[in-house]
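Protocol step 4 of 5: obtain the predicted structure for the target chain.
Materials: sequence only (see below). No template structures provided, no constraints applied. The aim of this step is simply to have a reference model before the mutagenesis design in step 5. Sequence pasted as it appears in the construct record:
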Amino acid sequence: LVVYRLGTPITLSDVLPQLQHMGLEVVDEHPYQFAGHSSTGSFWIYEFGLRPPAGLASVTVRPIFEDAVTALWQGLTEDDGFNALVLTAGLTWREVTLLRAVAKYLRQGGMRFSEDYVQRVLRSNAAITRLLVRLFESRFDPAKQDGAAERCEAFAEEIRGMLDEVVSLD
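Step 4 output (structure tokens):
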């Protein structure tokens, strides 16, 4: 990951947790400071060496990862373990926000599982998580209403089949 920053430098205590919540291991960091014009001050280039989760095809998730990191640093999304779903399930940060909201809603409704536990379950069952998002979109996205009933049934059937192979009944 290469980050370009104008003005104040990035502190490791700010960036490390965010990258770890995305499921990445930060293996090294190389900051470079450059003197800018007197009106702009210094600027920085940071190179972070990252180790992705096992089995990740980095080329396919690069654009959604970049969007998610940008949204995170701009304060458009929360910084928690749900963000690892960008890499493990190939979801956009907005799709992750949907799952985060559903988990919080269920928690308020009396679900006994902690948010951390829900995050781990969704990450460890990435294919099912991805299908749950597709099922939600198929049911509620006005642009996807043509053939929605058949598509929803196909998603639900595929999810039921995958649930049979999940180890924990939780």
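Step 4 remarks: The helical segments are 12-21, 58-73, 85-88, 93-108, 115-124, 126-140, 148-163. The two ends are 36 Å apart (CA to CA).
Proceed to step 5.
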